[in-house]
Amino acid sequence: MLFLYFDTITKIITKLIFNFLLKRSFEMIENYNFTSKSLQFAKGFKAFIARGNVINLAVAVVIGQLFAKIVSSLVADIIMPLFSLLFNYTGALKDLKLEIKANTYLGYGNFLQTILEFLLLSFIIYTILTLISWKNPLQKDKVDKNMLLLQQSLDKEIALLEEIKDILKSNK
């Protein structure tokens, strides 16, 4: 219950801060004397931010970071100790080192753990994306239909332009 209140308060504070920063940046853009190219860039940036995709992207990044922490914990606290049991090793596998010479080590255990985290995270993301695309097969049909309509429209425009070109040639 307390978590829900904390989560709601965090969302409200984040939204207030983001809206303040967004409003402030819009004011700065409007008050600055831009050249024509920089004005186009600034207006494009303003439109990009105003669409709301930036907020979705920021939320996705935060959720992605938290998800990566969960996967790291899963690998470090559950999977790697199971590997230690499997190989009858008493320490943590991330502490495995190969001594090259005195006081010089290759920490291959930590590297193996990082590779395992990457593979597991990649597999989970792939699985989620596959489930999302499997659940919505109509979107591919919409894209194919839109591409067909676009191609037909372009063919009509090309035919019309060629007719205009022929008329202009005959008038010379």
Automatic annotation (TrEMBL):
Stretches that traverse the bilayer: 48-67, 111-132
Sorted UniProt keywords: Cell membrane, Ion channel, Ion transport, Membrane, Transmembrane, Transmembrane helix, Transport
Keyword Nuclease found: no
Localization terms from the record: Cell membrane; Membrane
Superkingdom classification of source: Bacteria
Membrane topology: Multi-pass membrane protein
Keyword Transferase listed: no
Pfam families: MscL
InterPro entries: MS_channel, MSC/AndL, MscL_channel
One GO CC term on file: plasma membrane
Free-text function comment from the UniProt entry: Channel that opens in response to stretch forces in the membrane lipid bilayer. May participate in the regulation of osmotic pressure changes within the cell.
Subunit structure: Homopentamer.
Assigned protein family: Belongs to the MscL family.
Name listed for the protein in its UniProt record: Large-conductance mechanosensitive channel
